[in-house]
Design brief:
Blueprint lengths: L10 H45 L8 H48 L9
GO molecular function, one term: SNARE binding
Family: Belongs to the SNAPIN family.
Protein name: Biogenesis of lysosome-related organelles complex 1 subunit 7
Length: 120
């Protein structure tokens, strides 16, 4: 005679739990990266303003190439920030889909009737 094994009604949570820790870690890394990007953008802006103020000095300095490089760096930072925001949105959608799937699994498991033990 086989021992009875209970039916797991919380099986849908297993999928969500398995992915949630990895998704939370990824989301934390993305938030840290976004913070670093914003800080780097502020520093690049401050440096660009400083370099522009050097351009107002009466002595002619050839800093135009540096200003162009800083502006290019700023454009890349903005583009990277936009990509990170897009990834954050996609990550949120993925989390919602996983939660919906886990809920659907859980409800389908709960709706199934437990088979009765056949009598001998």
């Amino acid at each position: 005679m086989m021992p009875e094994t209970p039916v797991a009604l919380d099986g849908g949570n297993l999928l969500l739990t398995a992915f949630s820790t990895n998704l939370e870690a990824l989301e934390a890394q993305m938030n840290n990266t976004l913070g670093s990007q914003h800080q780097l953008e502020r520093h690049a802006d401050a440096l660009a303003e400083y370099v522009k103020s050097l351009d107002n000095i009466e002595e002619p300095l050839n800093i135009r190439s540096y200003v162009d490089k800083l502006q290019d760096c700023r454009r890349r930072l903005v583009k990277t920030s936009e990509m990170m925001n897009s990834l954050g949105d996609r990550l949120g959608q993925l989390q919602r889909k996983i939660a919906r799937e886990a809920y659907a699994k859980k409800t389908s498991i709960k709706e199934q009737s437990v088979p009765e033990k056949p009598e001998k």
